[in-house]
Each structure stands twice: as structure tokens, then as C-alpha cells.
Amino acid sequence: xxxxxxxxxxxxxxxxxxxxxxxxxxxxxxxxxxxxxxxxxxxxxxxxxxxxxxxxxxxxxxxxxxxxxxxxxxxxxxxxxxxxxxxxxxxxxxxxxxxxxxxxxxxxxxxxxxxxxxxxxxxxxxxxxxxxxxxxxxxx
Length: 140
Prior knowledge:
Blueprint: H1 3-10, E1 16-22, H2 24-27, E2 36-42, H3 48-62, E3 66-70, H4 74-77, H5 79-87, E4 89-94, H6 97-130
Helix pairs in contact: 5-6
């Protein structure tokens, strides 16, 4: 995988505030079936067709499947994913450092605010699996 090719392509778009590589590509755990995980923060909301075009073109450039995540407001929608991207990434493009810092800060704040609830859900889930109650509902 050539990061310079990703950078060159994404730099042609003036609406990208910053772009991050994350996932197995950053962890150096790439195998034949790995996809490339890319996250972008944009100046405006992108239309579905624009996102699709970005993905198709990136896949053509990289000759791999690409998962593209839009970071705008992600910490509010999925603080766990936002936190994981924030803590394990490689910056591809950084056009607005202040927005990048704000995104990282909010990702941490929202994740650590939600972490106790997430931990409780996970513990209860594991208990249900251990007790053989996974998939069963409690009825009155």
C-alpha cells in the first residue's frame, strides 16, 4: 500500500479537513483479505454518491477494498469507534489542525463519558453467555 497515492488523490478535494489511516494498515497486520480503513473529516456534508465515488476511486488506486468512515460528529454517534480511530491512526492529510485536535478531544470526552455504560453492557453480555442465557429473553 502506498500512502503517497492516497495523499495525492485526497489532496485534490478542497473539502477534506483531515484524513486518517486506521485499522490493520496502521497495526501492520495486513493480510491478503485485509481492507484499507480510511477516515475523513470534511468541511461539508457529503452526498452518498460523493462518498461512493471516493471509495471506488480509492479502491482503484489501492487495488484493495476500502472502508471509508466520515468523522464529522462520529464521537456522538459511535464513541467507541471514534475513540479507536483516534488512538490508533496515521495522519494522511492535515489541512486543519485545530479541527483535528477538537475531534480527538471530543472523541476522548465522549468515550470516557460512555465507557462505564459500555463496560456494564459487556460484563452483562458475558454473564449471559457464560450462563447459557444468550439470546433468551426474560418474560414476566
